[in-house]
UniProtKB/TrEMBL annotation:
<dbReference type="Pfam" id="PF24722">
    <property type="entry name" value="DUF7674"/>
</dbReference>
<dbReference type="Pfam" id="PF13599">
    <property type="entry name" value="Pentapeptide_4"/>
</dbReference>
<dbReference type="InterPro" id="IPR051082">
    <property type="entry name" value="Pentapeptide-BTB/POZ_domain"/>
</dbReference>
<dbReference type="InterPro" id="IPR056091">
    <property type="entry name" value="DUF7674"/>
</dbReference>
<feature type="domain" description="DUF7674">
    <location>
        <begin position="152"/>
        <end position="252"/>
    </location>
</feature>
<protein>
    <recommendedName>
        <fullName>DUF7674 domain-containing protein</fullName>
    </recommendedName>
</protein>
<dbReference type="InterPro" id="IPR001646">
    <property type="entry name" value="5peptide_repeat"/>
</dbReference>
C-alpha cells in the first residue's frame, strides 16, 4: 500500500497533509488511516476499502474523506464534524457512531446502516440509495426517501395515500399531488358517498388553501383540481367539502381554466 501526501487547508483548522491512494487495499492496510490520523492527517482521498474491513471504536473527528470507496464496519467510531464527499459507502456500518455535525455529500448509501448512531446535526446532501435521494430519519436513524416538505405534510395528513404510493417521486411535489388526484378521482367516482379518504383529502386541501400562498394555490389547482374537473360528481363533492376561499379558487379555475369541466 502506498500513500501519497500533499497538503490541504481546512478553513476551520490548521493546514493538514492529504492522504491519497489509487491502489486497492487489503485488510491490514485500513489501520493506516488511524496511524495517519494520529500523526495529524485529516484529509483522505481516493481510498478503496471494500472487503468488509473493520475500524470500530476509534476517534476520527474533524476528518474529510473524499472520493473514497468504503464497505467498512465503522461502528462506535467518533466522526464528529467529519465530512464524506463523493464516497461510495455501500454496506458500511455506522451503528452507534457519533455523527454529530457530520456531513454526507453526494454519497451512495446502499445497505448503509446508522443504527443507534448519534445524529445531532447530521446532514445528508444529495445522497442516494438505489438511485433515490434519501434522508436520515432523525427519530429512527433509518434511511428514507427524501420528501418535499409539502409531500411529507400530505402523507402526515392523509396516511392512507402514503400506503398507496411507491414513494419513488417524493421529492417532486407535482408528481405526488398528481398521483393523489388520480386516486381521489377514482375514489369519488366509484363510491356513492364521500369516503373517509376523500374527506381527509379535502380537509387537507382546506388546510393548505387557508395559508393563502400563491404557490400552494397553483399546486392545488394544477396538481389536484384539474384532475377532477372532468367529472361532475367530483366537482359536486369538491364544492361540498371545500370551504370559503378554497371553494372560490376551485370554482374559478373550474369555470375559467384550460380544462373542460362538467358542472
Amino acid at each position: 500500500m502506498i500513500f501519497i501526501e500533499t497538503s490541504y487547508h481546512n478553513p476551520r483548522q490548521q493546514k493538514y497533509p492529504t492522504v491519497t491512494s489509487n491502489f486497492m487495499t487489503t485488510a491490514t492496510d485500513i489501520m493506516n488511516i488511524l496511524e495517519k490520523y494520529n500523526t495529524g492527517h485529516r484529509f483522505f482521498i481516493n481510498l478503496d476499502f471494500d472487503k468488509g474491513e473493520k475500524m470500530t471504536g476509534l476517534l476520527l473527528s474533524d476528518t474529510i474523506f473524499e472520493n473514497c470507496c468504503f464497505s467498512v464496519d465503522f461502528s462506535q467510531t467518533d466522526f464528529t464534524n467529519a465530512r464524506f464527499a463523493n464516497c461510495n459507502l455501500k454496506c458500511s456500518d455506522f451503528s452507534q457512531c457519533n455523527l454529530t455535525n457530520t456531513i454526507f455529500e453526494n454519497c451512495s448509501l446502499e445497505g448503509t446502516e446508522f443504527n443507534n448512531a448519534k445524529i445531532d446535526g447530521t446532514n445528508l446532501n444529495n445522497c442516494r440509495c438505489y438511485g433515490q435521494v434519501v434522508m436520515l430519519n432523525k427519530t429512527t436513524g433509518e434511511l428514507e426517501t427524501f420528501k418535499d416538505l409539502l409531500v411529507k405534510e400530505l402523507y402526515d395528513n392523509v396516511p392512507e395515500f402514503s400506503k398507496m404510493t411507491d414513494h419513488s417521486d417524493d421529492e417532486l411535489q407535482y408528481a405526488v399531488y398528481g398521483e393523489l388526484s388520480l386516486r381521489l378521482f377514482d375514489d369519488i367516482t366509484t363510491n356513492n358517498e364521500p369516503t373517509d379518504f376523500a374527506k381527509k383529502c379535502f380537509q387537507f386541501f382546506n388546510l393548505l388553501g387557508d395559508r393563502q400562498d400563491e404557490n400552494i394555490d397553483n399546486l392545488l389547482v394544477v396538481g389536484i383540481y384539474e384532475g377532477l374537473y372532468a367529472s361532475k360528481k367530483c366537482n359536486d363533492i369538491a364544492r361540498q367539502l371545500l370551504n370559503g376561499r378554497n371553494r372560490k379558487v376551485y370554482e374559478h379555475w373550474m369555470i375559467n381554466g384550460n380544462i373542460r369541466a362538467e358542472y
